[in-house]
Amino acid sequence: MAKWNVEDNGTQYSIEYKRGLSGGKIIVNGSEQKVKSQNAFLNLIDFPIKLNNKAVNVVVIGNKADLAVDGVYLGSNQPYVPVSKVPGWSWAFVTLSLAIGWLFAGILGVCLGILGSMFYVKSSLSMHQSTKRGVVSCFIVFFIISVVQIVFGIAVNQWLNTL
Predict the structure, then answer these.
(1) What's the rounded Cα separation, in Å, for the pair 124 and 64?
(2) How confident is the model at residue 39 (pLDDT cuts 50, 70, 90)?
(3) Which of 14, 83, 108, 152 has a CA that sits 20 to 30 A from residue 144's CA?
(4) Cα distance between the two ends of the chain
């Protein structure tokens, strides 16, 4: 659960995000709104909240939630980038990580792929690095995760053959 307090023209707003199985709930001053993830494998939410004069978005990537107020995340002080702006190269890394995980290591491999996917999406949305640097850092993480998935899959297969 994540909770923030925001003031807009003298009015206090209490904003909460509670995680659920298929997304979660966003609660503004006691009023609940169910939200669903924009992705089937990765918890990905970008929910705008209407206040009087402030632009507010609850953004959830994986298990990390942050609130963007007037274009700046409260938790990290980084500029807000809409989740819809995730570039295609990031989704390519997500797809490959999940596919390699499933093919070589089953459900544990998919879990490792999901962890990598959170990194890929966060890295691609970061305004503090160039696109080239983001692709390189994602490729390094992708390589490490893929090696672990493949080695784990081979080790489990060898172990099962000895039974």
Answers:
(1) 16
(2) confident
(3) 83
(4) 44
